[in-house]
Amino acid sequence: MNPDWPADAIAFEESVSAALAARGGIELTRACEADPSRRESELLPLIDSLGLAEVDFRAGEIEAAAAALGAKAAGAVVAPWPLVAQLAAAPATGVGAVYLVDGAPRRAAHLDLLAGAVAVDVREGTCRALEPVGPLTRMPLDPFGVPCRLGAEVEAPVDAVSGHVVLTAFYVLGALETAVSLAAAYSVERHQFDRPISSFGAIQWRLADLSGARSALAELAAFTLARLIEGSVTMADVWALRLTTIESAESVLANSHQVLGAIGLCEEHDVTVIDRNLQGMLRRPFGRAATNAALAERVAAEGFDLLYPVEPRAASAA
Amino acid sequence: MIAQPMSFVDGEAVRELRLKLRRMIDEDLPAGFHGAFVSGHAGQDVADEFCRRLAEENLLTMSWPHEFGGTDASIWEQTALREEMWAHHEPRGAQYMGLNWVGPAIMRFGTPDQLDAHLTAITSGDAVWCQGFSEPDAGSDLASLRLRAEPTGDGEWRLSGQKIWTSYASLAQWCFLTARTDSSGSKHHGITVFLVPMDRPGVTVREIDSMLGPHHLNEVFFDDVVATEAEILGELDRGWDVIRYVLAHERIGIARYARSERILSLLAGYLPTADRPEADALRAAHSRLLVKARIARLMNYRAIASTTTSEVPGGVSGARLTTTLLDQEVAELALEILGEEGLYSDDLAPLEAWVESAWRYARSATIASGTSEVQRLLIARAMIAEGSR
Hints:
The complex is a heterodimer.
Chain A: H1 7-22, H2 26-34, H3 38-50, H4 61-75, H5 83-87, E1 97-101, E2 107-109, E3 117-121, E4 127-132, E5 137-139, E6 142-153, H6 160-189, E7 191-192, E8 195-196, H7 201-230, H8 235-260, H9 270-283, H10 288-302, H11 313-317
Parallel strand pairs in A: 1-3
Antiparallel strand pairs in A: 2-6, 3-4, 4-6, 5-6, 7-8
Helix pairs in contact in A: 1-4, 4-6, 6-7, 6-8, 6-9, 7-8, 8-9, 8-10
Chain B: H1 12-28, H2 42-56, H3 75-87, H4 95-109, H5 112-123, E1 129-132, E2 148-151, E3 156-164, E4 174-180, E5 191-197, E6 203-207, E7 218-228, E8 232-233, H6 239-249, H7 256-267, H8 279-305, H9 315-338, H10 354-362, H11 372-388
Parallel strand pairs in B: 1-4
Antiparallel strand pairs in B: 2-3, 3-7, 4-5, 5-8, 6-7
Helix pairs in contact in B: 1-3, 3-7, 4-5, 4-6, 7-8, 7-9, 8-9, 9-10, 9-11
């Protein structure tokens, strides 16, 4: 048992965070929303200089941890780049980006940026080329969506679904940590009734709950990554993490907005940018109810590993 | 660089320990054993016998240093012991307090005579302690305690007052008692800890009937009870130091999540078949709680690991809050799944009537050992302190 991160991976996260902060952090995300071409002119050189997209999560513990913490650092500023899709890809096989889909998607985020994208259908298990069919459409909850269509069937990269879900969890975790910090700091700065709002029990209650939701995702993401590295991860593990990603995000974002009040709804506030930019990741390939159903199905089929494991249904019926 | 990779898998020693403990539980506990919280002394008698078996195997006080009869077990071995015990109705019964924090507090603050008098009895599985902390007007605000200890002038003290919610008081031989010895300063000053035998004249235990079952809740009255100077643990008036040490030792608390995991595992066999209209909803709810149980355990592991590495702000309280809320959610789901039969406590009840007792006990999960409100306050305070930097 050792729940601590490798020092090299932590150092990598710090270097990614510092580089993104030097380019403006979330301000760069705002700039890219206003002018999507800045993703290539400003963000791409930064990612290249860090070697962020070249980290191979399949190459052992240190690189897997670096990929995860790199995704977390990018998520902390909701960096508008298909980093998870890129990290889950396998360039050696010609796959440049992995998207998870449920049937035929109408749009995919940042599909205009990377060649060789594929869509892995999480229900069917099939993998097909994913091609852009139009220019990027800017919408509040889908700021970088690109119209797309499915192409020819291709071979899915190894661990594409599990890797994608795990790396997405870390990207979202980074964003949630930023939201938590902003909410906690604001609760101290903001005075009402002649005292900081952090002195009110109702605000403290919300701070505690958003902290718990953040910690839940942090611990389960690390655990699931460790299982992925060990080669013992199951689809039940994967959907468990996906469900927690969705639920933790909803709790942290909703509670952060309540602490921040009206200011947190303004485009000039980072929580608004985080909230809008995460929604696509939380709804694709499907949302909470479908994820929970997928989890229940996989638990029945393959069991669930606990101190007292749940056996697969067939085994327990026998 | 770290010495070993990030891993959440039990090491070899912990795996073997778990197997050994499960074997002992299978072999040494009678069928239908539900812990010491049953009427009369029968449950604790079984627990005492099991403690002696653990002692024979050097497992009872494995967390203690060698010099005091322990084996210097690793934190993960200690964790496995807590988990296996709690998942099986805590077969150490009332003795867990002596092992977990009374003994360590005596090691830290005790005189040589106190070490001699108490530690051997605990390591051999022969001593039952209760915790005389809470009072009618001192619950979460423990430092407001008022039970008086007055010096008699001849080296003795007279204890007068009342403790309440004292678990196992009617089974205990000893009380780890906090008393007010000076009221002139701040409320954290002037508290003194006494190690008092429960059969001393003037000590009266009154059981409080509750939905939790026998032995959980008691009142203990001290009417001019005589205590000696030699029974003071630590320094006079500096009992708050001892209390803080005890609370720090109890910081992780009992491994409720382990019991939740075991109940969830057993409940899988009672989920409705697909032709029932509620099947999908209950399967979804069950699988969701499996995830929450895993998370609760991981959060506890992080809190445990933070005793040796950097502390997550509010991490211990976060783990406790998550664990206690899980306890209640699992109990509620268990009754949902079992339906009417889940209410039974007789031979007709599924799972040996474990669910109904777990459900009743779960009502106390967010109250005992620090309410969920207090845990949330502690988490928030840690965050606010971070936010202020």
